[in-house]
Specification:
CATH class of the largest domain: Alpha Beta
Number of domains: 2
Radius of gyration: 21 Å
CATH superfamily of the largest domain: Type I PLP-dependent aspartate aminotransferase-like (Major domain)
Largest sheet: 7 strands, mixed
Number of strands: 16
Strand content: 15-25%
Strand order of the largest sheet: 4-10-9-8-7-5-6
Helix content: 25-40%
Shape: globular
């Protein structure tokens, strides 16, 4: 990774550890010795956390940090209903899926009911990477090919098969020869042409795969293009893209690991905003509110064709404790009206960023849906020049004010705003006030 690439990542440089307090210096040294260099820490000064509750993370001395980034704990850190469900099930039974047990079936039925898709079945895994890995195996099996189309800066996971179709890793993880990338629909730079241009590029990628003797197997897309920079519009373009890849003999895989579970506010799943009906839906991160549970939902015929050749078994995927956690998350989203909150409070949050853009020229664009926003920072509004240096200063300036956020996009110049679904108006004001201070100080 080049020096510029290093600066684009919201990452701690271990060479600067001497500037940290003695306690954190010692912990960094121990971490490096025991975990290795591949593990990265956020921020110029890493955040040392000891506990969490709701939208807050707390340091070992009780200092509170407003969490505006961690969608793993989607219904709030340490939510008591999720904690209780995990503890209750762990004290009763936890085993694999090769025994009959009610809860894994109950949860599968409940989850399938949220998608609004007919004739689908679920498979559970532990991580979103595993879910996407299995989705590719299903697509390769049913299509007879291996060609994949992903967005230009996509991230789909860490297994070998999904890492090679995750260009966000950079040059250190080469893309597979069977992978084609297309730029996301950039409504900021392309306006009304964003959708049509995206579709033309998908069509061109399909043609290029065929020209090189590869059968297209799937279009794999994060339905908010979150790693590319959060591109929620134009809603509807993914439905047409899905038709195009199906006409070429492939499948449409909707990666909902980041966009799903009520995050967009208007819909429970990101693909629903596009009026699309995916052949496969993958999910993870917020599914268990911090408990490692993930999975996919696929057309019945796709799973049946796969099962005729392969027996799939995941030791921990679909275990009763994970299903209890997942069920509790669905209960909390429903009972606390969190989808409605994401829609209403997310609109308040977006409007607040737009007001700040009138005061601070560094904010070039505010976009997204619900509780997933991309705030693009530019040094020149006319030229729309990426302000990646300034964005890093904003991210770390907010961290010094105990507000945690990160950045995304190829140039690392887009604030990735992704609060938990329990974020309220008072938290919106805390974030916006802190950001106003940081921008005014630059």
């Amino acid at each position: 990774m080049s020096n510029k690439d290093q600066r684009m990542v919201n990452a701690f440089d271990p060479a600067s550890a001497a500037a940290l307090p003695a306690r954190e210096q010692a912990l960094v040294r121990r971490r490096q010795l025991s975990l290795g260099a591949a593990y990265r820490l956020f921020y110029e000064r890493p955040v040392h956390v000891a506990r969490a509750e709701g939208v807050w993370l707390y340091g070992p001395d009780g200092e509170a940090y407003l969490d505006v980034y961690n969608n793993v704990a989607s219904v709030g850190h340490s939510h008591p209903r999720v904690v209780e469900a995990i503890a209750r099930q762990a004290s009763t039974l936890n085993t694999h899926t090769r025994y009959l047990n009610d809860i894994v079936v109950d949860y599968a039925e409940r989850l399938l009911g949220t998608l609004g898709l007919d004739d689908r079945q679920a498979v559970f895994t532990c991580t979103g990477s595993e879910a996407n890995d299995l989705a590719l195996r299903l697509a390769w099996n049913v299509s007879g090919g291996r060609g994949l189309i992903v967005s230009r800066h996509a991230y789909h996971g860490v297994t070998a098969s999904v890492a090679e179709c995750s260009p966000a890793f950079g040059e250190g993880v080469p893309l597979g020869a069977h992978v084609r990338t297309v730029p996301p629909p950039d409504s900021y730079r392309e306006g009304e042409q964003a959708g049509p241009r995206f579709l033309r590029d998908v069509e061109a990628a399909i043609a290029d795969l065929k020209r090189h003797g590869m059968q297209p197997a799937a279009l794999l897309v994060d339905t908010l293009f979150t790693s590319d920079g959060v591109y929620a519009e134009p809603a509807g373009c993914l439905a047409r893209a899905a038709e195009m890849v199906r006409a070429a003999g492939g499948l449409f895989i909707a990666d909902e690991v980041q966009a799903g579970f009520a995050r967009t506010g208007s819909h429970f799943w990101g693909f629903q905003r596009h009026g699309a009906a995916p052949d496969i839906v993958t999910m993870g991160k917020p599914m268990g509110n911090g408990h490692p549970v993930a999975g996919l939902v696929a057309r019945r015929d796709i799973l049946e064709a796969f099962s005729r050749k392969v027996r799939y078994f995941n030791t921990f995927g679909g275990n009763p404790v994970s299903c209890a956690a997942g069920m509790a998350v669905l209960d909390v989203i429903r009972d606390e009206n969190l989808q409605t909150n994401a829609h209403a409070t997310g609109a308040l949050l977006k409007a607040g960023f737009e007001r700040l853009s009138e005061k601070h020229a560094l904010i070039g664009d505010v976009r997204g849906a619900g509780f997933f926003l991309g705030v693009e920072m530019v040094t020149d509004r006319r030229l729309k020049t990426p302000a990646w240096v300034e964005t890093a200063r904003v991210v770390n300036g907010l961290r010094e004010r105990r507000v945690l956020i990160s950045a995304t996009g190829r140039e690392g110049h887009i604030l990735k705003v992704r609060p938990q679904l329990v974020f309220q108006s008072e938290h919106v004001h805390l974030l916006l006030d802190a950001l106003d201070e940081v921008l005014s100080s630059l």
